[in-house]
Task: inverse folding
């Protein structure tokens, strides 16, 4: 079977799962032939998802079903530059008439606690938390995935029993199978992958301090709390944001939920939109949205290519969000606006999301920057002030 990779120059390497995340740098599997490949990148999250279908012999397919969940994924362009990075979250294996599923990994719970309201003499008290317990074998294989279960009103000892059953039920990836008697398919493995952003949904963030500090310092504290050492400690791509926020967080919210709230505030000082993403090897980028146009596309171009300002063609698999794209031959006869007001020019699109489908499919999503929502977020976060 001729590989579509040979047309695009894209290659995919798979590495050991979380247990060897910082130990092995050698790929355990290199993909040279595939049936389909799609990835999505977002201006508010970075590498989000990738889906890959690979034909292979039955023995290799069984190995993937048994050991593939959690494997790290790196996708490279023809020059060896990483264009997507994450891990295998879910696997579907087709063997003859059977389709076997395992995952999603991100649904497991191997570090768990319970929330409850204690009942004493028939009266319910204020909500409390049990201690966290973990399945050490699961965390050694898949990393720590923290989850909390709400028990409601409960007498002494009941919340701990519910917590322990929850851990026993959820510590390992789910699996299922389907059987189609009249189907006989070539063995294939379909991998639903997610970006390292998902590790920010694997732990909660709490802080008892009620002091005010800068928004960017709070962001660093949230990232530092990563239980799995996946998020890079190279913070050189995190721009300072001096808007003051409270450090207090005691609601057991996932790190990503805290970060999304900080993102909703924007720059805070001049209401500039801020972008956030987790990229190669857990590198975090946090910066203002750009004020220059980097991509160009002409409606009259039958080749449908996207270029830089100097006319250089940008391959579709290398287009990234968080940039401005202009369509110069749209609304001909309408005056161009200055760069300062380029968001008001309907020729200009800010790319929120990029979905690439091999070999040449490209879906671009964009929207206008909404300063009102940033203002409302600041008012809500500060308790009524701007």
Result:
């Amino acid at each position: 079977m001729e590989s579509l990779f040979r047309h695009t120059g894209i290659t995919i390497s798979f590495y050991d799962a979380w247990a060897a995340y910082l130990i092995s740098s050698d790929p355990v599997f290199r993909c040279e032939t595939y049936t389909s490949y799609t990835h999505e990148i977002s201006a508010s999250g970075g590498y989000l998802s990738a889906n890959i279908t690979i034909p292979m012999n039955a023995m290799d397919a069984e190995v993937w079903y048994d050991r593939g969940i959690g494997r790290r994924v790196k996708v490279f362009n023809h020059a060896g530059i990483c264009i997507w990075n994450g891990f295998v979250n879910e696997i579907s294996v087709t063997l003859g008439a059977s389709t076997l599923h395992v995952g999603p990994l991100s649904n497991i719970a191997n570090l768990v606690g319970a929330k409850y309201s204690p009942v004493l003499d028939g009266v319910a008290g204020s909500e409390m938390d049990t201690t966290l317990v973990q399945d050490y074998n699961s965390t050694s294989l898949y990393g720590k995935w923290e989850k909390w279960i709400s028990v409601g009103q409960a007498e002494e000892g009941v919340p701990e029993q519910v917590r322990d059953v929850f851990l026993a039920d959820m510590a390992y990836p789910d699996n299922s199978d389907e059987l189609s008697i009249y189907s006989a398919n070539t063995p294939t493995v379909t991998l639903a992958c997610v970006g390292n952003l998902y590790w920010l949904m694997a732990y909660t963030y709490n802080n008892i301090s009620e002091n005010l500090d800068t928004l960017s310092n709070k962001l660093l504290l949230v990232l530092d709390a990563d239980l799995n050492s996946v998020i890079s400690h190279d913070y050189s791509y995190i721009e300072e944001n001096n808007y003051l926020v409270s450090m207090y967080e005691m609601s057991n919210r996932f790190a990503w939920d805290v970060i999304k709230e900080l993102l909703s505030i924007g720059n805070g000082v001049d209401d500039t939109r801020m972008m956030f993403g987790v990229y190669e090897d857990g590198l975090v980028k946090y910066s203002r949205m750009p004020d220059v146009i980097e991509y160009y596309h002409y409606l009259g171009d039958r080749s449908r290519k996207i270029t830089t300002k100097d006319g250089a063609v940008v391959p579709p698999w290398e287009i990234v969000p968080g940039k401005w794209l202009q369509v110069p031959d749209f609304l001909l006869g309408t005056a161009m606006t200055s760069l300062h007001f380029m968001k008001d020019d309907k020729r200009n699109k800010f790319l929120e999301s990029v979905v690439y489908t091999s070999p040449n499919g490209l879906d671009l999503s964009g929207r206008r920057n909404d300063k009102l929502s940033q203002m409302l977020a600041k008012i809500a976060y500060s308790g009524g002030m701007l």
Q: What stands out?
A: The two ends are 61 Å apart (CA to CA). The mean pLDDT is 88.
